[in-house]
Amino acid sequence: MQFARIVIACLSVCASCTLPEESMRDVVEVPVDDPPAGLEAGQHDIYKGRDVYYYAHHWYYRRGKGWVYLSEEPDELRSRRQRQLGEGQIAPDRGSP
Fold first, then answer.
1. Looking at per-residue confidence, does 4 or 34 come out higher?
2. What range defines the domain where residue 32 resides?
3. Is the model more confident about 27 or about 5?
């Protein structure tokens, strides 16, 4: 009986937990055949150990000899970009969607 109470207590605690929004979204790497000119002039950051560039509403990075972009903006990069934009440290987005 004591074991059942512990299990029920654990389940009720777990039921109130939520996953971060980003973990519920699928961020997909989309290969780019012809990267936009001036891509590396976009906002630069480091994400998961790689150089990333914000251009035309997407984050791009090199993969092998080519480029990919992230289908969704990761929360971590969004918050840093918005903070830097608000502080005037960077210019608004370059390029067009």
1. 34
2. 22-97
3. 27
Q: Residue 76: CA atoms inside 13 Å, Cβ hemisphere, count?
A: 8
Tokens 């976009």: give the residue.
42
Residue 86 lies in a domain: yes
d(CA 52, CA 94) in angstroms, rounded, equals 14
Rounded to whole angstroms, how far apart are CA atoms 96 and 57?
8
The model's pLDDT over 36-93, given as tens digits with 9 standing for 90+, comes to 998 998 889 999 999 999 998 899 999 999 999 999 999 999 999 888 888 766 655 6
Q: Is residue 17 part of a domain?
A: no
The single-letter code of the amino acid at 81 is: R
CA-to-CA separations, 2 to 5, 10, 14, 16, 30, in angstroms, rounded:
5, 13, 19, 22, 51
Number of domains in the chain: 1
**What is the DSSP secondary-structure string of 37-80?**
TTGGGSEEEEETTEEEEEETTEEEEEETTEEEEESS--HHHHHH
